[in-house]
User: Which sequence fits this backbone?
């Protein structure tokens, strides 16, 4: 800035002690100049929520939903106000309800039409036009992608700003009898391949430098631990996502059945030599097109 005093022209020096009031990243609204005020935002790799949030429009009627606190944490960390969250396994709409509560928008894709219809009733007609778009489709398909693109256009967005993937944990819970349902895959290997198709659609529809969250747990099958989480994590990386974090979330106190079968499972564990799951994972990834292209170039040179 140039200032004129009497006869001299003086170049004024910016005051380095003046800290801008608000400093944020490109992907959230956390004011880094007041970072100590955000102790409610989790940055560690162990998440414990003793109780499932039931207020704020959430009900706990859907077997296999995640707790609203997961959406809250993800939104604080990885979205700005008005951003669009894309959830490719919408289920009972937890991500959509929390989007409304926190001033975000959401596109949710769910395979079961009767569920998609029922979940729509949780939102007002106006919210369904401006803030929450529910699509009934198979998220593995090109058709689902086209439908999402059309909704993004209505919301005046090219891409979404956060991707949420909360797939069935293989066949632990059967969500329907439909063959396209990821809980009905012929084998776990097919489940991984179908999951990867959904994740690829999500990658293509996510804005560059933005984040994706995968919520998943492991299973025991035929007397063996099957690390669904770690294999899906590898599939995300294969697509080109950068792996940023693996969070272990304590499930105790969050389950619907409140552990009524716990004594039976403890007996089975003692007999079978395995351990009972008390955790699931929240895995965080980032899309970085420049880094992906660079790695592809290096790999090509190396081969
Ligand atoms: C683990 S639940 C998601 C629950 C959700 N996060 C919530 O809080 O309610 C998985 C959902 O994915 C749906 N689903 C399974 N296969 C699908 C597919 N191919 N395309 C879209 N949705 C699918 C199931 O019907 C089920 O509702």
Assistant:
């Amino acid at each position: 800035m140039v200032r004129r005093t009497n006869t001299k022209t003086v170049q004024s020096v910016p005051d380095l002690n003046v800290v801008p009031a608000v400093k944020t990243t490109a992907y959230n609204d956390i004011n880094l100049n007041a970072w100590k005020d955000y102790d409610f935002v989790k940055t560690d790799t162990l998440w414990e929520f003793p109780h499932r949030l039931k207020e704020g429009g959430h009900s706990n009627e859907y077997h296999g939903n995640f707790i609203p606190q997961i959406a809250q944490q993800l939104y604080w960390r990885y979205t700005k106000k008005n951003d669009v969250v894309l959830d490719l396994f919408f289920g009972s709409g937890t991500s959509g309800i929390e989007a409304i509560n926190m001033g975000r928008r959401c596109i949710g894709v769910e395979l079961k039409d009767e569920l998609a219809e029922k979940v729509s009733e949780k939102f007002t007609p106006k919210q369904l036009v401006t803030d929450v778009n529910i699509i009934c489709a198979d998220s593995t398909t090109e058709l689902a992608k086209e439908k999402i693109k059309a909704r993004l256009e209505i919301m005046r967005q090219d891409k979404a700003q956060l991707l949420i993937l909360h797939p069935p944990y293989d066949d632990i819970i059967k969500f329907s009898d439909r063959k396209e349902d990821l809980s009905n895959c012929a084998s776990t290997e097919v489940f991984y391949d179908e999951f990867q198709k959904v994740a690829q659609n999500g990658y293509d529809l996510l804005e560059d430098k933005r984040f994706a969250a995968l919520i998943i747990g492991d299973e025991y099958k035929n007397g063996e631990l099957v690390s669904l989480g770690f294999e899906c994590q590898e599939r995300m990386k294969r697509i080109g996502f950068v792996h940023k974090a693996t969070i272990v979330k304590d499930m105790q106190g969050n389950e619907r059945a409140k552990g009524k079968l716990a004594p039976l499972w403890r007996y089975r564990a003692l007999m079978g030599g395995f351990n009972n799951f008390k955790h699931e994972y929240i895995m965080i990834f980032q899309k970085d097109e420049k880094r992906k292209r660079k790695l592809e170039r290096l790999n090509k040179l190396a081969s």
